[in-house]
Specification:
The protein has six helices and six strands. The chain is mainly alpha-helical. A two-stranded antiparallel sheet has the order 1-2. It has a two-stranded antiparallel ribbon with strand order 3-4. A two-stranded antiparallel sheet has the order 5-6. The longest helix is centred in the last third of the chain and has 47 residues, at 160-206. The structure holds zinc ion (ZN) (2 copies).
C-alpha cells in the first residue's frame, strides 16, 4: 500500500460532516465503525467517536487553509496532528496472519490509529503534489473536500454530481442572460421603430 493512499482516510473523515447542509454522518459508534472498516475488526466506543470528530475539525482546517492559500496555517495544523498522532511502524504476524505492517503500533485508541494514518497520508500527498492540490468543492453550498490528482490541476468539484450541478447552474445562468439580452434588444428595436415612425410622421406632416 502506498503511503499517499492513506490520505483517502483524511478525505473520508472530513466529508462525514457537511456543516452547510447540517448533515453529520459521524455521530454514533455504528457510523464510526463504518468509517473505521479499513482498520479491520475493532471495538469502537463513544470516546472514539468524539476523538474522530475532533480530528475531523482539524483536518477540515487543513483543507480550508490550503484552499484559501494560507499554507503556513495548513502546515501548522497538519504538523500538530502528526505530533499528537505519530506513526510507529512495526511488522507483525499476530493471530496467525501473514507478515504485515502496522503503522501506528501502540496507539492508545483506534481513533488515534486512524488519525495517524490520515494525517501522514495527507502530509505525503500535500508535499508531493503541492498544498494547492487540497481542494474544497466549488459547487456551493457543498464544502466537501478532495485531493486533486488530475494532471492539469483543474479539479474544482468533489464529485461528478457536483460538477454536473455546477454545469447546469452555469448553463441556466447563461440562458437567463441570453434571454435578458434578447429582450433588451427587442425593446431597443421597438423603440427605434417607433422613433422612425415618428420621424416619418413628422416628414409627412411637414409636407
Ligand atoms: Zn494486524
Ligand atoms: Zn461538492
Amino acid at each position: 500500500m502506498e503511503l499517499a493512499s492513506y490520505a483517502d482516510r483524511a478525505v473520508s473523515l472530513v466529508n462525514t460532516a457537511d456543516p452547510y447542509r447540517h448533515r453529520d454522518t459521524l455521530t454514533t459508534c455504528e457510523q464510526a465503525k463504518e468509517l473505521l472498516a479499513p482498520e479491520g475488526r475493532c471495538r469502537v466506543t463513544n470516546a472514539d467517536v468524539a476523538e474522530l470528530r475532533a480530528i475531523r475539525d482539524r483536518l477540515r482546517e487543513v483543507f480550508d487553509a490550503a484552499e484559501s492559500g494560507r499554507v503556513p496555517r495548513a502546515v501548522q495544523v497538519l504538523n500538530s496532528l502528526m505530533k499528537q498522532y505519530p506513526i510507529r511502524p512495526v511488522v507483525t504476524d499476530h493471530d496467525g496472519a501473514s507478515w504485515h505492517l502496522h503503522l501506528a503500533e501502540g496507539a492508545p485508541t483506534i481513533a488515534a490509529v486512524y488519525g495517524a494514518k490520515a494525517a501522514m497520508g495527507l502530509a505525503v500527498q500535500a508535499t508531493e503534489l503541492g498544498f494547492d492540490r487540497l481542494g474544497v468543492c466549488h459547487a456551493a453550498p457543498c464544502r466537501e473536500v478532495f485531493i486533486d490528482t488530475s494532471t492539469n490541476r483543474s479539479r474544482r468539484y468533489c464529485s461528478d454530481r457536483c460538477a454536473t450541478r455546477a454545469n447546469v447552474a452555469a448553463y441556466r445562468a447563461r440562458r437567463k442572460e441570453q434571454a435578458r439580452a434578447a429582450a433588451a434588444n427587442e425593446a431597443a428595436q421597438t423603440e427605434s421603430a417607433a422613433a422612425t415612425a415618428k420621424v416619418m410622421a413628422g416628414t409627412t406632416t411637414g409636407r
